User: Fold Major facilitator superfamily MFS_1 from Caulobacter segnis.
Amino acid sequence: MAKDAAPTGSPLIAPVSTAYRRYALWVLLIIYTLNFLDRQVVNILAEPIKQELGLADWQLGMMTGLAFAIFYTVLGIPIARLAERKNRPLIIAGSVAAWSAFTVLCGFAQNFWHLILARIGVGIGEAGCTPPAHSLITDYVPKEKRASAIAFYSIGTPLGTLVGMAMGGLVADAYGWRVAFMVAGAPGVVFAIIAALTLVEPRKRLAADLAARAAQPIGFGAALAVLMAKKTFWLVALAAAIKAFIGYGQAPFTASFFFRNHTAELASLAAQFGLKSAGFLGLSLGLMGGTAGVVGAWLGGVIADRYGSKDIRAYVIAPALASLVAVPAYIAAINLPGAVPALILLVPYYLLGALWYGPVYATAQSIVDPAMRATTAAVLLFIINLIGLGLGPLGVGLLSDLFAGPLGMGSAEGVRWALIVSALMGVVSFGLFWRARRTIAADMVS
Assistant:
């Protein structure tokens, strides 16, 4: 078979035991939690970093988003191509070790460019995590549990954000933002070793399967041609990218919004618990948003698997409706006069905002041949993170500076209106998910 010709079938993967599957999913969940902890801890640290290093909001956006995302998205595809043929657990282990080391280095940064370089290193390391992890999970679990399994892994997104916000705020209050980076990066070394020594590569279970993959790889051109023909892939990829733009764009500036608009109230609330404002806000946003996000991610997978078995369109209808309802919830929250009611109203918003993870990633894994699943995950993440993580924080930061300066609103109102504009983009995401109802049944492969 020519290198660029896609096979009509795929070799059978030997399944792992149910007990081992549970263990592996837990290890991968913890790794992905560390992935997002190290990626998102910078958000609660943005204000003290801004003050110490004298940064503008667009520089915060560059540091939290674009610097990380460029290398994360670009390197994800070649690493995924490697994962189609090589040992996926070892690739994941090496990635964990790399991003953890660079997270620690963030704590030693002396200026904006030091931070940019360290964040680039975090992005390089994290590029090797999710594509091989999605591919592994899809091999580990039966089809009817795929969305739930990937949703379980995706719980790492809100869980890592929860731990990052809470831990980052508390440690920064007590020891400074530099120590917070060091604490965030340390656990990755342990789990890099655990992944390397205990995660099983299913392809090793069948020598014939491994030989077939090595002798007849699907070229990147053929893989891309398959994806180009899948309308569902592009609709859900763009919809998810907009959701990521909103989520990543709001993340570093939601905390800034509370610091700038509810300064006295935060200080008073924090004092009641013996905390400083950053610690209290990080703990509040982390616990409330993270817990809601965990529930939302889990619920999205359950809905997709339960109702998708009867009507496959449930995989896109659920995130479509969640995207639409989330818009007024967020706008209402940041326009409430008090910090406490605003935080409470953000809970359903974070739940709805995480509901798309399982359905979207499971759809991507189900519309292609098993031999190109890691590549598909990497292309999907390339789109999501280049638009979402790369442009989201930078875009919201630029809007905040525009509203605050040239439009004369001041920094407090500037960040509020930047967040409102970003939230309204959820309507576009709804439309794309809703459109995918027409194509998803025809595009399903496995």
User: Anything to note?
Assistant: The domain at 18-199+206-443 is CATH 1.20.1250.20 (Growth Hormone; Chain: A;). Confidence is low (pLDDT under 50) at residues 1-14, 210-215.
